[in-house]
Amino acid sequence: xxxxxxxxxxxxxxxxxxxxxxxxxxxxxxxxxxxxxxxxxxxxxxxxxxxxxxxxxxxxxxxxxxxxxxxxxxxxxxxxxxxxxxxxxxxxxxxxxxxxxxxxxxxxxxxxxxxxxxxxxxxxxxxxxxxxxxxxxxxxxxxxxxxxxxxxxxxxxxxxxxxxxxxxxxxxxxxxxxxxxxxxxxxxxxxxxxxxxxxxxxxxxxxxxxxxxxxxxxxxxxxxxxxxxxxxxxxxxxxxxxxxxx
Length: 246
Ligand SMILES: NC(=O)c1ccc[n+]([C@@H]2O[C@H](COP(=O)([O-])OP(=O)(O)OC[C@H]3O[C@@H](n4cnc5c(N)ncnc54)[C@H](OP(=O)(O)O)[C@@H]3O)[C@@H](O)[C@H]2O)c1
What we know:
Rossmann fold, seven-stranded parallel sheet, 7 strands, binds NADP nicotinamide-adenine-dinucleotide phosphate
């Protein structure tokens, strides 16, 4: 499968799943625009991509920053063939300790950021483009942990599935799908993976009894991003060792 000549935008590509997706799409031939906020992360992804892409600072919690990013892409006369809406955060406080500020901190990235990344990218999406949202098994499966995060990923799942069946979007040949990972070893989950008991507890909830790797999620993103999935839209692909349905 080749993505030669395609342009891909991956948000939250400075670490974890987004970084692995940016690398995999570049390996497949795409020119990758990789975004994030941390300067060291941007340096790392820029070095990884070399001539196969660019690293761009963009805070998705700020819709005007997303609009500026899209304007700069339009200014370079590029269209987007692939959009991976991946940037996300977790670790909200316990339910009883939630405040409007902690709510905003998580939802501004996971929901508002995801939504306006898509909305501002829409005019730039090429005929036949593919959009992949990164959800989570937490968006559909009841499980102890972080219910606000689960709610944000439920939104992502529902929004992506709705957009993927929208007549105006389909008329442009654009497909929209969601990849929902289970527990994956990344900086986001380091607190749990570094703690032996927490690590084993999570493994006990996964039918395959292990954590996933970012590269395994990147393969699913590549599949949905490419023409290999040409008849798939509005779908959710789980990459979770069987957790969602176990
Ligand atoms: N790891 C898992 O077990 C797991 C499971 C299910 C779903 N997911 C989802 O997968 C996605 C990636 O997570 P990950 O595990 O790879 O986490 P990660 O390693 O912490 O990476 C998160 C990425 O999102 C970016 N990001 C965070 N806030 C941002 C903001 N306001 N603006 C722009 N970029 C921002 C980070 O960039 P900077 O640090 O440069 O800001 C980083 O590149 C998230 O949507 C997450 O919810 C992860």
